[in-house]
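Q: Start with the shorter request: fold the first protein.
A: Done. Sequence, then structure:
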Amino acid sequence: MSTPASFESTPAKSGMPDWYPELLASVAHQIDTGRSKAVSAANEELVRAYWSIGCELLERESQEGWGSKVVTRLSADLRDRFPEARGFSPRNLRYMKSFAAAWPDFAMLQTASAALPWSHHVLLLEKLAEPEDRLWYMACASAEGWSHSVRGHQIETFA
C-alpha cells in the first residue's frame, strides 16, 4: 500500500488551483484505506473458510475413519476445479484440520485474529502448542502490525 504523500504542484505550471494537491492527497488516502479494508475483509473470510473446511474434514474423518488418501485426492480435485487458486495442497488441508482442532470455537479466535493472514496462523500452529500463547502473539501482531517474518522472529526469540 502506498502512503499518503503531499504532492507538490504549482498552480501556474499545472493549471490546477492551489487546493488541488490537497484534493489529490485526500483521494489517494481514501483509495489506500479502502483497499486496505477490502484486503482485510477478504482475508478474514478466507481464514473463516479455512477454519470451516478444517471442521468439516475433522468431522468426516472422525465419522468415516478415512486416511490421508482422501486429503490427497481432495487436494488434487480442488486444484483441478480451481486452477487459478492456491492453498489446496495436502499439507495446507492438514493445516486447516489442525487449525479447526486448535480453535473449536471460531468466535474466540475471531476477536484476536480478524485481520491476520493465513500464513500467520500456520506459523502459530507450527511454533506454539498452547492456545494462550497463540492468542497473545495474535493480539500483539494485530496491535503492532507485525509481518510474518517479524512474528517468526518474535516467537523464536521469546517463546
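Q: Next, the second protein, separately.
A: Sequence, then structure:
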Amino acid sequence: MKQFIAMALLGAALSGCATMAGLSEPPRVSLVSITPTNVQLFEQRFRVTLQVQNPNSETITIRGLDYEIAINDKLFAQGVSGKPISIPAYGESTAQVEVVSTLQRVLEQLQEFGSRDTPSIDYAISGHVSVDGIPIPVPFEFRDKLTLPGFEKREKDDGNRPFKPKTKAIAI
C-alpha cells in the first residue's frame, strides 16, 4: 500500500512539473518514412522521418529522443537523437533521425511477412522525448497498419505462397 501511495504522489508531482513547463499534453510522434542508408552484413541503418506535433499552447523544444520501431509486434530497429527540435504552439515539425537494425531482426521480419495470411503490416514507434523545462523524459507511442494494395488473402490450398496477386482477365 505504501508503494502505491508513493507511486501516486510521484505521478502527481511529475504531472505537475509537466504542467508547470506548459506541457499539458505530450508531443505526438508519428512515422512518415523509412529509407535504407547503409546496409552491411550484420548492421543496417535507416533514415527515418518523424512528424512531431505539439498540441500545447506554448512552443516546446525537444532536446533529444530515444525510440524504437516494431513491426508486427517485434522489435525491428532502434535509435537515439540529440538534435534539438523546436515546435511552435499547436504546430508540427519533421525530424530526420537514424535507426539501426541487425541482420537477425531483418531476417525475422522477412520470415514473418512470408508466413502471414494478410497483406498488412502492423508497425509502431515508441520511445521518450526530453523536453526543455521537464526533468524527466516524456513517453510516446504511435501505432498504425500498412495494407499492401493489389493482394488478397491466400486461399487455404495455396501452398507456400503467402499472397496471391489480384488479376483481371483482359479481353484482346
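Q: Describe the second briefly.
A: The chain is about 20% helix and 50% strand. The radius of gyration is 21 Å.
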